[in-house]
Structure formats: C-alpha cells, structure tokens
Queue: 3 jobs
Job 1
Amino acid sequence: MTPKLPSTSKLNEEQLLELARKYSFRSRIDTNAIAGPIMVWGRGSVVRDVNGKEYLDFNSGQMCGALGHNHPRIVQALQESCETLIHSHMSMFNDREIILASRLAEITPEGMDRSMFLTSGSDSNEAAMAIAKRFTGGYEFASPASSFHGMNDSTRAVTFSGWHEGYGPYAPGHYPIMAPYEYRCTFCKDRGGCDYSCLNTSFELLDVQADGQLAGVITEPLFSAGGVIDLPDGWLRELKRKCEERGALLIVDEAQTGLAKLGTMWGFEHEGVVPDIFTISKHFGGGVAISAVITTDEIEEKVSATGLVVGHSHSNDPMPCNAAIASIDIILEEVLVDVAQRIGAYWRGHLERLAAKHEIIGDVRGRGLLQGIELVTDRFSRKPAYQQGKAIGRMCLENGLILSVRRNGSVFRFVPPFTTTEAQLDQAADILDHAISNVI
Ligand SMILES: Cc1ncc(COP(=O)(O)O)c(C=O)c1O
C-alpha cells in the first residue's frame, strides 16, 4: 500500500505529477496529458505555479476568476460564512440566498426578478431546460452549432461545438441550428452582412423535423468556446421572434458573457432583447461555484404550480451565496461595465496592431473582456492555421501568458480579469507578438 502523504506537505512539481499519474482521473477539456504547470497561488490577474513561475492569466482560471483571483471582498465573504453557516438544508430558506435573490434583481432587466441558485453552468442550463419543458409542455430544444452549454447529459445534448459525440444516446429532440459565423458563412459571404438566411433555413428544417411543440432554443449571446463568435446585429432579435411564433422559450446562457464581462451587464442587452430565461455562472461567485437561473414571475408561477422540483444538495448554500452577494457589490461599486469597456478597447488596440503586423491573424473579434483572434494560413483562402496556432499557444504559455486555444488551434480566446492593468496588457501583447514572430 502506498504510504499516505500529509496533504499539507510542500511537494515539488515532479512529486506532484508522480501522484497525479497514479491517482488522477484524466478527463479534462483540451488535454489528457499529466503535465505542468501546477498552480498553487493567484492574486488579481497573476497566477503562480509550484515552481514559483508567474503567468498572466488571460483565461481567468476557467473564466470563473474574472473578478481577479482571491479578490479581498470574496475572501472576506467566505470568512464571514465560516463564522456563520457554510451549508444549509436545501429545502429550507437561508438568509444569504434570499438576500442574493433580491440583490440580483437590482441588476437584471425589469420583470426578470425570480432566481434560483445552483452550482455549475451545466446544472443551471439543465434547470432552465426543465423549466421550459414544464412551461410549454414540449420537450424539444434547438441550439446553434457553435454552442457550449455544459457536460451533463441534457446540456451536452445541446452542446454542438464539440464534446458531443460518443456519449449518446441522448434523449430525443435536440437539434442543431446553424451558427451565424460570419467570418466563414457561405450564406452571406457575398451579401455584405448577415441577412439571417442561416436562421431561416435552420428553422425551415427544424419545423419539419420537430415532433411537436418546441420547448425552447438555448444560445449564448456570443459563442465563446465555439470560437469567440459574435452574433450579427439583429440575429438574436430574429431568433426571439421565431421562438415567440412557435410558443417556445428563448434561453440565453450568460455563463461567459454576463455580469459586465462584455462591457454591458448582460450580453443580450447589446441586441435589445430580453430572453424568457437566462442563466449565469462562472465569475458570479468570484471563483466559488455558484450559478443561477433567472426568469419572470409568470414563468416561475406557472412551473411552480406544476410542482417543479429542481435542486441538488448544495443548491442555495449560504457560503457561495455570500460570495455572489460580494461579487454583485464588486460589479456595481467598481463599475465593472466601464472597466470591461476600457480594458477591452485597450486590448483591442493591441490585437488590431498585431493583426496589421502578422498576416496569420485573419480576424479579430469579441467584446470587452472576451476577445479572440482567428489564425489562418492566408487571408484569401482563410484556411485555419491549426498547427501554427497550437505552436504559438504553447510558446505563449512557456513565456508566461495563459490563453485559451479553441477550434483545434485556429482561434485564441483572451479573457483577462477585470483587474488587468495596461502594463499587463502590454506585456501580454509582447508575449503574443514574440510567439507569432518565432513560429511563422
Ligand atoms: C457558455 C457556457 N455555458 C455553460 C458552461 C458549463 O458551465 P460549468 O462548466 O460550470 O458546468 C460553460 C463552461 O465553460 C460555458 O462556457
């Protein structure tokens, strides 16, 4: 039997990897390798590995650390819960969840006042889908082909940007619709912009395929994991109209885009659309796991009357709820909507300057703290530069910049925390510039 090591022992990287090789289950997104860096510390926009090397974290952890790692207000909220109540009975109210629900209503659109709290983005989307089923009486859902909504069975069934194949059979009635990926769209390539042909065609197919009443359409308001793909103007409005025509609910997944990240409180605001249900997670808890489903009185009343039950052992736990209250304080008091606009504009300047310098950057897109570049072998063919992208991403990491490499190497996604300074943005741009220059 392997001797037990004290959990507090300071092990070096090789010792930790040796343990991981024996005991860790490999099931991560993007890599199956058991390799460093192994993170041990973080403050603001910087994380440090077990060797003491520092990195600019332009992935904000798993996007959940966007308020800045170990924000003092979040730390304080967690300490308060340690003094009061960490966990509570799921079927009894606790004061933190009630306060959180009322504070959240301060920043949600008018009429979207009702919220329930869960743990992950996946379970908030699963709950939203359950609500849509009970509200409409239907069971079928559609979602764009670039979508990512989670990895439990019901959300994986509507996740079409990858990680879908090989986990079936799914429950029947989950359909992809075309994503409005303007940079690569064959419908509108010669038309000077999106005329929603992709959406119209998708619904033509959906209508003939569906078994009955469509329960809902779930979408991100900017496809993040799918490749930092912005929605064309009016697309979300048109989608909402199509849902209304069919009596289906529009669910917007704001896991990556909500709570000021894009320079607006909500991603859907950009389109002037209010969905029927929306979900939030990621930096909602300032690094602690909590998600929410938000909807109207009408929907809440109808589905509650049907006896809807959704929840898990840790739903509404006071500790993550207290962290989320602190995160709302931070978002409002530090005016993070403005911060995202300011950081976003400064970073965009860097990305555009790099695009002017390096032909391999075919497109620059995204908003606020969620921006990306698409790498192509040449700008005419727009052939994705998969291998070069992977090599550039590796070199950035070696040189201390964490970013997310999407679409098999051809898209880089940058999510710097709200705490990122101009000097850190300059440093990140230098690392990226250097890596591109060395690889191509
Ligand atoms: C848009 C979106 N929705 C849902 C999820 C799933 O969230 P979680 O990993 O917390 O289950 C993610 C995760 O990256 C996401 O990006």
Job 2
Amino acid sequence: MDFQSRLEARGLSRRDFIKLIGTVTAALQLPAIYQPRIAQAVENAANKPAVIWLEGQDCTGCTESILSSFNPGPTEIVLDLLSIRYHETIMAGAGETAESWLAENIKQGGYLLVVEGSIPTADDRFLTIGGRPFRQILQEAAANAAAVVPIGACACYGGIPAAGPTEAKGVQDIISGKPIINLPGCPVKPNWLLGTILHYLVFNQVPELDSNKRPLAYFGGLLHDNCPRRGHFEKGEFLTDWNDPAQKDFCLLLRGCKGPKTYTDCAQSWWNDGVNFCINASSPCAGCTQPEFYAAGLSDNRAGLAPLYVRTDTMSLPGIGGVNPETAGKVMAGASVAGAGIHLVGNIATGRLKQEKAEEGRRDK
Ligand code: SF4
Ligand code: SF4
C-alpha cells in the first residue's frame, strides 16, 4: 500500500498529515523549518520496516501509554504510518504466521527495534514465545537492527521484575555492539518515543545521551530543579499531613519524593497532552526514570529508591549534623530565620552538594 493510501486508510488527507507533522514538530520543540524534513522522513520510513516491537516481561503499560494517551493522537498515528511490522499486542496476526512475519522482517534489517519489558536470566524457560526463549529472539532481532530502543523501566534497567525470582535484566545487559537509546519511566512517556524515533529518522543518528544511555533532551535535568513546588522546598514548607488543606501545595520531600535524584522533563512537559504529572497531582515522584528505581536489577548494589512515600536517607545539615527527616522541615525553617542561605541548606539537605562530584562525571559527551 503506498503512502497516500495509508493516509486515506487512517482517514487523513495530505493536508491533515502536514498539519499533524506541524503539531509534532512543535511538540518536539524544533523550529518549523524542520517540518518538511520530518514529513519526508516519515514518508520514507513508511515504505520500509521502520519498527519491530518486542515484549518481554512486561505489563503492556508502555504500549497502553503510547496508544491510550490520545485517541488517536500524533504518537499513535505517526507510529502507525511508520509501519510497525511486529507488535504482539496490536497486530492482527498470531501464532506461526506472526512468527514467520517477524523472521521475514528481521531478514530485511535496518529497522528500529523497540523493546518493552525485561529479560529473564535465571532460566530462559521463564519466558518463551513460539517455543523459543525471549532472550534468543531479542538477540536475533537486535543483530539486524539499526538501533535498539528499550522503553520503560523494565526494558532499560530490569525494573520491577528485577526484584523477583527471574533475575530480570534490561536490554543493555544482554545486547552489545548496537546503539542503545534508553527511554525509561513507568511507563514511558509517548513524546519521548515519538521524538526519539523522529530524531533518528530525520538526522540518521542517535541523539546525545547521558551515562545511562538516556537522551539528554528529555533526561538532562533534575526534576527537583524545575518542580512547581520548589518554592515551598526553599522555604522549608514540607507536606506532612495529607489531610491538612494548608499543606496541599507543600514540597513532598518528606513524603518520599525522589525528585532531587531523578532526571526527567516531567515538570516541564506534563503527561496526557499536558494535563498533569505526578507531583502536581500530589503524588511524590517515585524516580521511575532512574536505574535505581528498583535497585535489585543493579549489579553495583546501589541503594534503591523504593519504598514509595518514604524518605529513606537521612539529611546532614551544616553545624547541625544528621537530621531526622520528619523534623527536617522545622530545622530548615529555623535555618532560614537564622539567616542561613536556605538554598544552600536545601542543596545539602537533598544530598546534592555531596553528590556534586559524582554528578559532574555522569554525562557522556
Ligand atoms: S522534593 Fe519533590 S516535591 Fe519537593 S521541590 Fe523537589 S521535586 Fe518538588
Ligand atoms: S514525576 Fe517521577 S514518578 Fe512521576 S513519571 Fe516523572 S519520573 Fe516517574
């Protein structure tokens, strides 16, 4: 089916398509001058096997995130136009037909391989598809891929399944010798995937990544630095009682917010077409974009961010020493009255000054 017919099958005219590309270009914060290049890249990609999408140990939440956020939205439409050649949840085929279709497309090569879900390593029999271990299917598909894009915490770093008996791992622990672009989160945010795919198609190269293989465009800044509650943090106003209306917009640090350790653009680019995001809905950030979201998957035994709603580490304030998290609000407010630089105190309270050196080296250039 040619591109025009594919548009018509989606109920889109050429004009609708150009308008859609304009929306996508703006959402990606690219100047309008890129519109023709993006439109051409999508059109070119529609005629070849652009995307193969595998699912390992997952809850299908990332697929849901992509497909349900709009109905239908730019991400769904563009992904559809991009010719997803294999996706267990949305494709019509099943059984041997689907598996031979996958083998055929792997043979053609040159696609982006999107992976959702983790890979069991304790025993390959924990996950087989068509009688074959998922690990083997992943390795075969990765071998002919142009690049691999693990989506969601599970595919990137093992995620929640890493805490269970399957000894689940992320793609980067299984695949080597291929460009890997990690898009973590629980689930992945649709515009991260759409933007990454389009960047790759337009520029034919992997976007700039950090040391955890995440695009700097989306994961280059600390949530804490852009948080709408940051002013309350600076004033030492922390929510301690969910039922006190006076505290409703206070900083969620003492309720377990992991924003000071989490790199994401969640505060700048809200979920569901800008409707909301965790902290604005009074839910502390769980750090779902961090490798240590579920630490059981980390080989270096780094401390994890779980449990939710609990501030796990102690704070050390200058001249005061270790502070009980539950009383830190009072201490910080006292420091403010005493004339101490509250921003400095805040930085120390979140461990940022201590971590500064480590953070300096965390970016790949
Ligand atoms: S600790 Fe969390 S709620 Fe408080 S300012 Fe930082 S990111 Fe926002
Ligand atoms: S605010 Fe935190 S927990 Fe919520 S989606 Fe963003 S990174 Fe994940």
Job 3
Amino acid sequence: MNRLAELVYYWSPIWLQNRIISAYGRRLVAQRYGEPYWSERTRLLRKDYGDRAGEDAAQLDGVRDIIAHAIAASAFYRDLYAGMDVSVDTVSDLAKFPVVDKEQLRADIERVYTIPVEQGIHLFTGGTTGKSLEVVYTPEDFQKRMAYLDAFKIRCGIDPFKSRKATFSGRSFAKGVFQGKRRIFWRDNTAYNQRLYSTFDLTERNIPAYLADLDRYQPDVLNGFVSALHQLASHVLREGIRPGFRPKAIFTTSETLLPHHREAIQAAFGAHIYDQYGSAEGATFVTECLEGNLHYNIDTGVIESADFGQGPEMLITSFTTHGTPLIRYRIGDRIVFRDGTCSCGSAHPLVERIEGRAVDYLYSADRGRVSLSHLADVIKGLPNCVKEMQFQQDGLDEIRILLVVDEELYAASAEETIKSAMRYRFGDGMRFSIEKVPAIPREASGKFALIKNRIPADQLAGMGLN
Ligand SMILES: [Zn+2]
C-alpha cells in the first residue's frame, strides 16, 4: 500500500478496512495467480520427485540458465564474470564463480537488477541484520515461487485456495481501532479466504481475545511466524485450554523452528507443522515432507556449504530470481545436511537443520559461539512460570536475561535454575543478570527476537568470532 492508502486505511472503520484489505487482496491474487502460476503448479503436481537423474539434469539446466541470463542482462554480473571461463558442465562448476554477499549487492543494486524496478515485484529480504536487500522479481518468477509453495502445501493435504487460513506475519492493523469497547486484532482478506492477525498486539493480555476469535473463525490452516504461533501455543498449554478449532496443518515461516517450538505448537493445536525455508529470502527452497523430513529442493536452486572461517555457511543460487540474480549468494544462514534417503519417495537430499544468522548467537570468551538451538535447551528445562524470555548481550562478559513470568507460579529458585543452565553453556567467566519485565516488545518486523546480540563487531573480530 502507498502512504495515502495507508492513511485512509488507518482512519477507516473496521468494516471499511476489511474491504480495503480484500480489494488489495484481489490485486495480489491477480498478481500472484496468473497463467504462469497455474501451469507451473500443474507441472509440479505431476512431477516425479523420485527421479533423481531427472532432477539433477533439471538442476544443471537451472544453473546454466541463470548464469547465462545474469551475464546477458545484469551489468553487475557481466563485470563480475568478465574474462572468466563461464562454461558449466556440472553443477559443481559453480564453485569457480565468485561469492557475492549482501553488502556487495546492496551497494550496486541498480546494476544487479535486470528489469526496470517498477515492472517487478519487490520483496525485502534478510531484515534481521540491519539493512535489508530489496529483491525485484519478474512477475513470472514470482508466480512460479508461489506455485512451488502451493504445490508443497497441496502435497501436505492443503489446497491453499479452498482452505480457511489464519495468518500471523508481521502486520499491525489494530492500532487505535475499536469496535464498541473491544479492540479487534484481525482483518479479513476475503479475496484469499484468509484472516490476518496482528503479531504486534499479541501480548499475554490480548491472547484470550485471539483464541476466542480463532474459535469463531475455525481455520483449516495456521500460517506464519514461529514466534507468534509458539506464544499462542505456550499460553494454551500453560492454561490448560482446549482450543475449539482443529487445523489440518500448520505452516511456519521466517524464523528458525526449534524443537521446543515444534513440540509446543503441535501439542497445543493437534496438527502437524510443515516447515519451509527460502520463501522470504528469494532463496532455494527447503521444504518438509509428509514423513517429517526436510528436503533441499534441487529443482529450485543450488545450496552450497562454504567455510569462511567460522563454520559452514550457506551459499545459495536461486533459479527464480531472474530480476535480481542471486548466484553463490552468502545469505548468512547455516545448513546441516543429512545422508540417506526418505521413505516419502522424494530423491531430493535431506537436511538435518537450518540455523540462523550471526545475530542469532550469543558469545562467550571461553566457549565461542553458542547457538539458538543450545539456548532452546535452556528454555526447555525451565519451570512453566516463565512465559517469555530474551537474551541480550552488549559485551563478552555479561548476558542480560529478560523474563516475563507468571507471578502466581514464580519462585526465585527459577533464577538459580536458569543461571546454572547458562553457566554450563557459557563457562564461569560470564556474568548473568536476570530482570523481570511486564512484556518484551516485538521487532520492527513483527518478529520476536530470542537473542539481541549487540556486541560491537570490532570486539568480536578482535577475538576472531565475527
Ligand atoms: Zn521425505
């Protein structure tokens, strides 16, 4: 929406806001679900994912196509590859091309684009680490990406058009808008059979209103940020609530899904989570199958693992970014592959897990980097009087832990439990301070940050940790 439309929207009553959102929704539907979407979706649903040779051949074609396209249409890549042998005989030939990172692309983004910006569809990627990169898609690529995601959902038993969707993803539309005395934290996009729930207003106090509305709405699908769904789920489990709705599937996105998130969300809502990676980043997709395994979707791009001195990092080459070619792009996330085959029938390689970015780590002078998944174990062992927590680190000698607690259940002994679990992971040289707070604010993106790492880069670099 542009500024004027936003202003009009904010000053409108809810019924009109719903109409504005649905009108906007109809525009999005037209933009996203045209002929390229339908033909790609049909092709994908008929495709044999078990044909490894066929999939490998498709991947090689994809690499050749995006390299040739980048050289022909992007001044940035033409210069970058000038004088190189750009022939590609196998996918591993990609290794001879230079790596690009976000800063490099951002600094020269106008020369990276292959189409006039106004002709494309824009998405901002990787907003977690300061400035984000604006990726411009060709309308056709954008529709193909939608088709890929929808084919994935259809394989999980959900037709995205026919299902009633409750979506929690970084929107705020409830500000100052009341219906009678009640604040309404959701809006309807009837064009897509979807109710959008604000993640910014999702606080302990408001959660009962959200749950009551989900009971009324009876969604077939829950979609959205891991943190938002986890927050709802924790409340449900803690309070012993039986939700009056039963989704058929849950699709999480945008944030790392940790084991304790999955456990809580599935237990609270009685449905399986199908996780996926890549949709928000313009990247190669990684999607979960019916057997509960993550697959690296080699028909959507290439994922290489490279070490720049701090453990393996992902390099992605995407086949659906002709507007803004991403070739050997250092996206900042980490991936762990797994050997073996999957009984679901797909020949796409298995992924053990995907880990977040550098900002998703805490650091200790003794132990180096401690990841989100290690902290997840701290959280898992906590008494259930702790509703929310955030780890903040400004220097290498202290970690602040913010807690939102249930005062009735809270006992000071919980602090000792947390501190000893933290000492076990960070060593005795680290100080821990615990602060009880009434609430932990969401990020500007609407996501919840479990970790706020604000250690100056030069301090980390000085220790060889950045
Ligand atoms: Zn599988």
